[in-house]
Known about the structure:
The chain is mostly helical. Helix content is 69%, strand content 0%. The chain has a single domain (12-89), classed as Up-down Bundle (Chorismate Mutase Domain, subunit A). It has helices at residues 12-49, 57-71, 73-86. Helix 1 (12-49) packs across helix 3 and helix 2 runs antiparallel to helix 3 (73-86). GO terms for molecular function: chorismate mutase activity. InterPro entries: Chorismate_II_sf (IPR036263), Chorismate_mutase_highGC-bac (IPR010958), CM_dom_sf (IPR036979), CM_II_prokaryot (IPR002701).
Amino acid sequence: MTDIPAEPATAPADLNRIHSEIARLDAEILDAVNRRLALAQLAARTRVETGAPMVALGGETDVIRRYQDELGPRGSLLALELLRLARPPFSSTYRKR
């Protein structure tokens, strides 16, 4: 993990370096979110195909709690958004035929 300086940037070069690091982190976050969404959708399809409910509410509660414990109240908002993104639209794709 990168050390974050305690003092604000004083030169444009410092600010550019900070913005570059933020952009790099954003790319990592987006990659992780996309991997998470793909895995969550695979889990939902697998649950439906085996006759289980598409959504595992206990698991979702654990996710919300984990994010809230790490990030505080705003963490629960982030967790809820990630869970919402992972839920498939209601379509015949997820119904047993």
